[in-house]
Design brief:
The chain has six helices and seven strands, in the order E-H-E-E-H-H-H-E-E-H-E-E-H. It has 208 residues and is of the alpha+beta class.
């Protein structure tokens, strides 16, 4: 299964809506929606809805993880994209039956524990002893990343983990939760896979 980084050479399509509905399960697991926020499309195109600070800001707003006026900066957007890569690595390991990558586990655990429960104690020569509060934007992003990391952990350790799969219709790179016999993330991918199989059968018949 390709990672997001392996699609970087594809032609970007900006923030154009590809017309794909959320993959099955993404409506219940925001971590799954995060993993699917970079989409490989036919024609060697690639859509990353977190590619810009404004796109990342809107994604957090759409998933009730930040207020609309959070004012996301590139550094925070990069942290969100980085967590996405690590979550995808864990999902891929789960789907493929491989050991979880140590770097991905560390990153998710870091996001889980970064959210402070109280303002830490600090000291400087001007204020002396004081309580330090994080920057409001950092605080919002830390909280959002912590929620997403916890959601990923719940998905990977809960009863839905066995339903987790990768869409088998190239070039799609989305993950989903299987429902019955459905293994595709969308009707479009299912139609494309069936068309590819029919073409392969016709080609085989013609060769024979």
């Amino acid at each position: 299964m390709r990672s997001v980084s392996e699609t970087d050479t594809a032609a970007p399509v900006g923030t154009v809506d590809p017309g794909l509905p959320p993959a099955p399960g993404a409506e219940h697991y925001p971590a799954l929606a995060l993993a699917n926020s970079a989409i490989a499309l036919p024609g060697a195109q690639f859509l990353d809805v977190l590619d810009t600070p404004s796109g990342s800001n809107q994604w957090l707003v759409d998933h009730d993880l930040a207020p609309a006026d959070v004012g996301m900066q590139e550094m925070c957007a990069a942290r969100l994209r980085s967590l996405r890569e690590q979550v995808r690595a864990l999902l891929a390991a789960q789907v493929d039956g491989r050991p979880a990558p140590a770097d991905a586990l560390t990153a998710v655990n870091d996001a889980l524990t970064r959210v402070p429960t109280a303002a830490p104690l600090g000291w400087d020569s001007v204020r002396g002893m004081h309580r330090t509060a994080p920057h409001p934007i950092d605080q919002i992003v830390d909280q959002a990343l912590g929620i997403l990391a916890a959601d990923a952990a719940d998905l990977l350790t809960g009863p839905d983990a066995e339903r987790l799969t990768a869409c088998p219709s190239p070039p799609c790179n989305r993950y989903l939760l299987r429902a019955g016999r459905r293994h595709w993330c969308s009707v479009r991918c299912g139609d494309r896979a069936r068309a590819a199989r029919a073409y392969a059968r016709r080609a085989q018949t013609a060769d024979g």
